[in-house]
Amino acid sequence: MPGVKEAMLRRRSSSKVTDAAPNHAEVAAYVETAGQLADHSGLRPWRVIEIRGDARNTLGDALAKADGAKGKDAEKFRGKAHRAPLVLAIVASFKPSHKVPHWEQEAVAAGVAHGLTLLLDDEGWGVFWRSGELTRTDAVRSAHELGKYEELLGWLYVGGLPAGGKRDRPKGRIRVGDHLSVL
Q1: d(CA 97, CA 19)
Q2: What is the C-alpha end-to-end distance of the chain, expressed in Å?
Q3: Segment Disordered: which positions (predicted)?
Q4: Structural domains in the chain, sorted by start
C-alpha cells in the first residue's frame, strides 16, 4: 500500500477534468481527514464551502463583477467557474487568540487545502487549486458569504480524470539544495 511519501511525489494538478465528482458524503470524509493536521491551540481556523451546479454561476458572476467585466467578458468568468463539477472554496476563519497570529491560522487553512488535494488525488480525482487577484475582492467575499474575520484562500476545482487518467505534465523533482539549508 503506497504511503504519504508516494502520494506526495505522485500528486499533480489536473486542469482538465470530467463531469464526475465526489458526492457530499465523500467530500465530508475528505474534509474530516484533512482537518487532522497540526493546529496550534486547536483553533480549527478554517472552513470549506462546497459549490456545485448552478451555484458555480454565483462564483462566476462574482468574479466578473470584481473584474468589472461585461457581456462576453463576463461570460468567460462564468465559464471558468464551470471548469469542474465541484469547486471547494477554502476559507481561513480567524479566531481570537493571543498565542496564534493570523498568519499561522491562515497557514493551517492552507494546510487543509493541501491535504485535500493529496486526498482527492490519491482517491483518483482530478484537482487543481485556483486563486488570483480577484480572490479577496468585495464581490467575491460577498458571494461566499464570508464573515468579518474570514478570508478566502482560493478554490479547489475537482472532477473526474479524463480517459486514461492522465494528469498534467509531470513535474520535475525539486532541487533540494535550493530549498534546504542547515543553520
Answers
A1: 42
A2: 36
A3: 1-20
A4: 4-52+84-163 (3.40.109.10)
